[in-house]
Design brief:
Elements: H1 2-32, H2 37-48, E1 58-61, E2 69-75, E3 81-85, E4 90-92, H3 95-100, E5 102-103, H4 106-110, H5 123-135, E6 140-143, E7 146-150, H6 161-167, H7 179-193, E8 197-203, H8 209-223, H9 232-247, E9 248-249, E10 257-258, E11 261-268, E12 274-282, H10 300-308, H11 311-317, H12 326-329, H13 341-354, H14 359-376, E13 380-385, E14 388-393, H15 397-406, H16 410-418, E15 419-423, E16 428-432, H17 435-465, E17 478-484, H18 496-526, H19 540-548, H20 553-562, H21 568-579, E18 585-586, E19 595-600, E20 603-608, H22 612-617, H23 622-630, H24 634-639, H25 678-694, E21 697-704, H26 717-727, H27 729-738, E22 742-745, H28 746-753, H29 769-780, E23 787-789, E24 793-796, H30 804-808, H31 812-819, H32 839-847, H33 850-853, H34 862-871, H35 878-976, H36 980-998, H37 1005-1033, H38 1058-1062, E25 1070-1074, E26 1081-1085, H39 1110-1117, H40 1141-1157, H41 1169-1183, H42 1190-1193, H43 1197-1207, H44 1244-1257, H45 1262-1273, H46 1279-1293, H47 1300-1310, H48 1317-1331, H49 1340-1348, E27 1352-1355, E28 1362-1365, H50 1367-1373
Helix pairs in contact: 1-35, 2-31, 5-26, 7-8, 9-13, 9-17, 10-13, 14-15, 14-17, 16-23, 18-19, 18-25, 18-27, 20-21, 28-29, 35-37, 35-41, 40-44, 40-45, 45-46, 46-48, 46-49
Length: 1375
């Protein structure tokens, strides 16, 4: 663990050095932006000395509490300089006030964990450090080996078992400050060095002393190992609730205030296992039993007793509620919010069982407590008899109950309370007491009972938790002592108890100072450092005043207590006479004053002398002891055993029980006569305690309370400042500063200041760390007495000294600017260790003003400047000189590093650019050569391609001519066999469609009939040519009749247009549509003769890396890893999964039709094309069975008729596909499959109707249709097939929309369409998404327009004006 901590420190140090260099580089960058020559030299001087405060800087300002507080300089938007203190208050910063400010040391800005490291070793620095850590929620702080614990008044989860494991085995200072760290140091030193340890916990009431003792005890019990056979750890822990119940009470400042001093000594075996413990108590506050201040309560046990007893037990003891008893209602406070009295009583009862208190003992304790409460309600009636004041006990139930509980006769008890007997030379004389004296006698009896019962409980606990070793006089165990004792007290009214408490604190303070001084001695002796010049003063003069010199204060009090006629006034007069000239004693100002003062180490305390002697005598009358002797109460006899010894009671035998038990292993006091007074008892116990502490290695915990209101996150500066002075923290710092307070190990010093080492004087590779440290100090620090080399450390003296090199290093320009108030300070290069007042103030003080106006005046002597800086507290210590020089050297090195880094950066940039240029040249030459090769190859390929296209065109025209002739002949033969009636009906239907389409007038009927006949002849020729072409290439027929439109002009190919047709991949026939009112013509391809597939370059527009590409969709949704690219085979299963089997079969049928539509597979062959066409035409015309849509795609005729009626059949033009009559049955319809109906040559329009029909009737296969079309467009090398596919896709986009699953992918796909299809299809997709699906099938005109990607121009208004219509309009009005 230690090695890991060291490695972590080394890493942190290295990171810090790197960060520091980078910081300097950034500072230098900012500095380089300033272009003034005069400021350049000034910055060098500024590295050495700082100037007036700047915005954002922290300073010390005066306050009302007597110590400075922190404040930060702020500049308002108006430019006014302000001071914002720690409380948020703003003050205007005037130039006069600025001159008196002192800049705050950086360690005081953020706070430190160990206050020894503070640069501001003042009351203000210590106080602000505690304030900062308290605001950060950190309540433990070190001052060397002393732990300062601030009570948070709030529970925090920092005392768990995990925290115990964390601090176990760690040295003090390796982890953040914590009370467990102190406990671990005690435990480690005891087990490692086999030496007794002690921890002295002090502080004011409410500061957390008792809780700190519990936490240390908890830690020791957790790490001590296995439990002993008697479960001693549990017994020790269970003693706490008993002692708290009988010794703690609620005060104004603390709900659980310890009203006694406690020294808990825990014994361990050599293995570190707890073997026992012993508790010793000091100076229990007995007066609280009878009197409490307002807002305070009696001891906890009384309230627990009244709350926890059962009704039957309370009836036996004749107890009621707390308000009924005078001893409990004087403070007018009966409850405590932080305590549960009933639960505490159960816990006390359980703890007493664990500590082997018997049931009888428990009941007897109840009886004595109840007797005390009843005695408090006993009253006395005063009377006068024989000119003497007498008193009698008032008759009441409380008195008889109290006598019954004490097991004495009521008359005997009444006599002892109202009379006092004393022994004369010959006989015993009894004197009656007044009612007031009787009350005092009763109170003394009650206090004696409670005090002696508390002592007996402590001894009972000790008898269980500690067994004295029988192996020898000395204990075989080692111990850790926990001293929980009252802190220094200074109230408005201080009495005899405060004098004893402050006397104990004076002894502990002397022990504390001697220990700190001893630690310093041990440190110097261990490092072989001579320090004879070190001197310090302690509080011995105060101890001499109290107990040291003859006629000391406590001796005078004891002397006056032994005189029968001694009084508080005679005691005060003697003290004033004896010590009036003593500086530490403050005598009364007049003979009527009753108070006196003592100059304690923490300040002057004034004591009220009234009641001193009564409290010091601590006497119980002979009559009371006689009454106790007659009692049959066993516990009462036990606690007064000392007074009842020797078979009788003597009048002068008023000895008290000595606090140190007889079985103590400490050094026993002298066997002289025991002092009967309370101060004598306390002094004797305190001497025994100090001897025990001197034999141990001590640790100190100073407990502070941040406020008197017991509120969390509230810090009272004045209260904490007083506690700081009482705790003696400044003595630790003062003693350290007298010697060499700045200490570094050789390795740390070299690592920190290695930049100052001159390699010419000392080779770092060959010399030791000590030699390198010596070389650094000789080079930068003047005077060998300012630093010392030890065995493992280097010691630096904290002196205000300025080396000659510091000032001689400044050139004339810099020094002149320094002394003449040059206001060009650069905060970027500020060194936070050396401070300087404003330059104008410096110049004025050094030269009394002349230099302020005369820049050319000579500079003052160097020693004068140095002396001035020392007197003004500008310089702090030798480590500040080292830090300043280190910063200068680091600045120089940072410049070098910056220069090298910038050069390296520019060099890398140049090399990178040169390599890039070479690569570009090489690639360009290679590209140019490759391009030339491609041009030559392209020209050859272009020539071959032109020739090939010319041959293909000739072949196509020849085949088209032959096909037209054949089809025309077949149609002529078929037409002759048609009945005249059918021909008339067909002519009328075709004529009506043309009239609606062209919106022509009725006067042109004859001309339209002639045009209709011409168009019919042209279409017949086209169909014949198509059938001929398909018969030659695919052996199939296109049986779709042409729409009845007028042929305006038949395009012919002339010789001058031959070159134009050579570039066309797909030769088509164009038909012009002439509309009335317009001379323009609209052409659209009707049919494309089949040509051999032309292999071309890949037209891959589907980006596979795109989020919404078809490739990404195929991975996510296609079945069986089906590819998203073009294929010529039929699928065995659909691309997308379908739950309906009918949908799956429909998808396979649609795929078959799409392959045929795009020409990827040939049309089905027919044995006799001519007879097949003839029979089909003959069957189609009379019966129209071949034209039924249900025979193609299986549409429900009822749904079609319903849609027809909904859209308006009257306004709908006749379709080129004749509707079947309503009486036609559906039995022979083929819904899905590839029966004879589809396994025949189909026209493009029929194929389109099949595909669209499936999409309109089966919504679930729409995405499948779009995916099939898109799949056939990806990586399709046949241009003709691609164009047909895009035509099919554009028509579908105008009829039915895709689902939300595929819409984003389809948008991305069509946006990359070739030859204008991208924008065309995107526009149609947006329109169909906005308008919804169509209800009608597409017509031939739509197919023709889709191939040319143009809008159809037709006449649809009564005025004859042409309008453009979309496919949706064509469906409704033109079909």
């Amino acid at each position: 663990m230690a090695k890991s901590v060291q490695s972590q420190r080394a890493i942190k140090s290295a990171v810090g050095e790197i960060w520091f260099l980078l910081l300097h580089i950034e500072r230098l960058k900012k500095t380089s932006e300033k272009n003034t020559d005069s400021s350049a030299g000034w910055k060098i001087g500024h590295c050495a000395l700082s100037t007036a405060v700047i915005s954002g800087e922290w300073v010390w300002v005066d306050s009302d509490i007597g110590v400075p507080i922190g404040a930060r300089v702020k500049v308002s938007p108006s430019g006014q300089r302000l001071l914002v203190d720690d409380e948020g208050n703003e003050q205007i910063l005037s130039p006069e006030r600025e001159a008196s400010l002192k800049i705050m040391h950086p360690t005081s800005v953020e706070g430190v964990g160990d206050m020894i490291k503070l640069g501001d070793m003042t009351d203000a620095g210590l106080l602000r450090n505690l304030l900062l850590r308290h605001r950060q929620g950190i309540f433990y702080t070190y001052t060397g080996s002393v732990l300062v614990a601030v009570n948070p008044y709030q529970d925090f989860p920092i005392y768990s078992a995990e925290q115990v494991k964390l601090y176990h085995g760690q040295k003090l200072g390796e982890l953040p400050p914590h009370i467990f760290a102190i406990a671990e140091s005690c435990y480690f030193n005891m087990t490692r060095h086999l030496r007794n340890q002690c921890c002295i916990i002090s502080g004011e009431s409410g500061a957390g002393k008792t809780e700190s003792t519990k936490l240390i005890l908890q830690y020791l019990a957790a790490v001590s190992g296995e439990l002993s056979e008697q479960s001693i750890e549990q017994q020790i822990l269970e003693s706490n609730p008993i002692l708290e119940a009988f010794g703690n009470a609620k005060t104004i400042h603390n709900d659980n205030s310890s009203r006694f001093g406690k020294y808990l000594e825990i014994f361990f075996s050599e293995d570190g296992v707890i073997k026992g413990a012993r508790v010793e108590q000091y100076l229990l506050e007995k007066s609280r039993v009878c009197h409490q201040a307002r807002g305070e309560r009696n001891y906890h046990i009384f309230y627990c007793l009244l709350t926890g007893l059962t009704a039957e037990e309370k009836k036996t003891l004749k107890l009621g509620v707390a308000k009924e008893y005078k001893f409990l209602n004087k403070g007018d406070c009966f409850t405590c919010a932080s305590r549960d009295e009933a639960n505490d009583y159960s816990r006390i009862h359980s703890a007493m069982k664990i500590l082997t208190f018997s049931k009888n003992q428990f009941e007897e304790i109840h009886k004595l407590l109840a007797a005390i409460l009843h005695l408090g309600n006993v009253g006395f009636e005063g009377a006068t008899q024989n000119n003497l004041e007498t008193s009698d006990v008032t008759k009441s139930e409380n008195f008889s109950v109290a006598a019954s509980l004490l097991e004495v006769q009521p008359s005997s008890l009444a006599e002892s309370l109202t009379h006092r007997s004393f022994m004369t030379n010959r006989e015993r004389v009894t004197k009656p007491l007044s009612s007031e004296q009787a009350e005092h006698c009763r109170d003394a009896f009650v206090k004696a009972i409670y005090n002696k019962m508390f002592i007996w409980i402590v001894e009972k606990i000790n008898s269980v938790t500690y067994k004295k070793s029988t192996s020898g006089a000395d204990s075989p165990y080692h111990s850790i002592g926990l001293l929980d004792i009252f802190g220094f007290e200074n109230f408005k009214t201080n009495s005899f108890e405060q004098l004893c408490i402050n006397f104990a604190n004076e002894k502990l303070q002397q022990f504390f100072v001697a220990h700190i001084f001893k630690l310093e001695q041990e440190e110097y002796l261990k490092e072989d450092i001579v320090w004879n010049k070190m001197k310090f003063s302690d509080n011995q003069n105060i101890l001499d005043l109290l107990v040291g010199k003859p006629c000391n204060l406590l001796a005078l009090i004891d002397e006056e207590s032994n005189f029968p006629k001694g009084s508080d006034s005679t005691m005060l007069n003697k003290m004033n006479q004896q010590h009036k000239g003593n500086k530490t004693y403050v005598a009364t100002k007049s003979e009527y004053d009753t108070n006196f003062g003592i100059q304690h180490f923490a300040g002057v305390v004034y004591y009220e002398s009234e009641g001193f002697l009564e409290k010091n005598r601590d006497a119980v009358s002979f009559d009371i002891i006689k009454t106790v002797e007659m009692s049959t109460n066993k516990l009462l006899h036990k606690i007064f055993a000392t007074e009842l010894s020797n078979n009788g009671v003597k009048t002068t035998n008023n000895k008290r029980v000595v606090i140190t038990p007889g079985n103590s292993v400490r050094t026993q006091p002298d066997k002289r006569k025991q002092v009967p007074t309370l101060s004598g008892q306390f002094r004797q116990s305190l001497d025994s305690l100090m001897k025990a502490l001197s034999a141990c290695q001590p640790f100190f915990i100073r407990c502070f309370k941040p406020n008197n209101s017991k509120k969390s996150k509230m810090f009272d500066r004045e209260l904490c400042m007083r506690q700081l002075r009482y705790s003696g923290m400044k003595d630790t710092i003062r003693i350290r500063n007298l010697g060499y307070p700045i200490r570094h190990t050789f390795e740390e010093f070299v690592k920190r200041y290695r930049v100052l080492l001159k390699t010419a004087a000392c080779d770092p590779k060959n010399e030791t760390a000590a030699a390198r440290c010596e070389a650094i100090c000789k080079a930068v620090i003047v005077g060998e007495d300012k630093w010392k080399l030890g065995r493992t450390k280097i010691f630096l003296k904290k002196t205000e000294n300025l080396t000659h090199k510091m000032l001689t290093g400044l050139d004339t320009h810099v020094a002149t600017g320094l002394l003449h108030g040059l206001e060009q300070w650069d905060p970027v290069l500020w060194v936070p260790f050396i401070y300087l007042p404003p330059p104008s103030t410096l110049a004025r003080d050094l030269n009394n003003g002349p230099l302020a106006n005369d820049v050319s005046a000579p500079l003052p002597p160097l020693h004068q400047v140095e002396s001035y800086l020392i007197n003004k507290d500008v310089l702090d210590a030798d480590d500040a000189i080292l830090e300043r020089l280190r910063e200068q050297e680091l600045s120089r090195i940072a410049l070098i590093i910056q220069r090298v880094m910038l050069g390296q950066k520019d060099r890398k940039s140049f090399l990178k650019k040169r390599r890039a240029a070479v690569v570009l040249q090489k690639r360009w030459r290679a590209y140019r050569e490759e391009k030339e090769k491609r041009v030559r190859g392209f020209q050859k390929r272009k020539s071959w391609k032109q020739k090939r296209e010319a041959v293909i065109l000739l072949q196509a025209q020849t085949r088209k001519l032959l096909a037209r002739r054949t089809v025309q002949k077949m149609r002529d033969d078929a037409s002759s066999r048609l009945e005249k009636e059918n021909l008339d009906q067909l002519a009328i239907a075709l004529q009506q469609g043309l009239e609606d389409l062209a919106s022509a007038t009725r006067s042109a009927d004859e001309e339209l009939e002639q045009e209709l006949k011409s168009e019919s002849e042209s279409e017949s020729a086209t169909e014949t040519e198509s059938v001929t072409e398909q018969g030659s290439e695919a052996n199939s027929y296109d049986l779709q009749p042409a729409p009845a439109v007028e042929v305006v002009q038949q395009k012919t190919f002339e010789s001058d247009e031959f070159e134009k047709w050579r570039t066309i991949q797909e030769p088509v026939e164009e038909t012009s549509f002439k509309t009335p009112g317009s001379d323009s013509k609209s052409t659209a391809p009707l049919s494309a003769p089949a040509t051999p597939p032309v292999e071309e370059e890949d037209d891959d527009f589907d980006d596979e890396s795109d989020e919404f590409s078809l490739f990404r969709f195929s991975i996510l949704h296609f079945q069986s890893n089906i590819s998203h690219t073009h294929i010529n085979q039929r699928l065995k299963q659909p691309l997308l999964p379908h739950d309906d089997e009918g949908d799956a079969l429909a998808c396979l049928t649609v795929w078959w039709i799409i392959l045929r539509f795009m020409g990827d597979i040939p049309e089905p062959k027919s044995q006799d094309a001519t007879s097949q066409v003839s029979s089909t035409l003959m069957d189609r015309l009379p019966q129209r069975q071949g034209r039924r849509l249900s025979s193609l795609v299986g549409l429900d005729q009822k749904i079609l008729r319903k849609n027809k009626k909904k859209l308006g059949a009257a306004s709908r033009r006749a379709s080129t596909i004749l509707e079947e009559p309503e009486n036609v049955t559906e039995d022979g319809d083929i819904l899905i499959g590839e029966g004879p109906t589809l396994d025949r040559p189909l026209s493009p329009l029929e194929k389109l109707h099949i595909i669209v029909g499936y999409a309109l009737t089966r919504r679930d296969i729409r995405d499948e249709i779009y995916c099939q079309i898109c799949k056939q467009l990806v990586l399709n090398n046949n241009r003709k097939s691609r164009m047909l596919g895009w035509t099919l896709l554009s028509i579908c986009l105008g009829i039915f929309p895709p689902t939300d699953l595929f819409v984003k992918f389809l948008k991305k796909f069509v946006s990359r369409g070739p030859d204008g299809y991208g924008a065309y299809c995107t526009e149609r997709l947006h329109r169909i998404l906005a308008n919804g699906e169509r209800k009608e099938l597409p017509c031939l005109i739509e197919l023709q327009v889709a191939k040319s990607k143009e809008a159809l121009r037709c006449v649809c208004d009564s005025n004859g004006r042409p309008q453009y219509q979309c496919s949706y309009g064509i469906s409704l009005h033109l079909c």
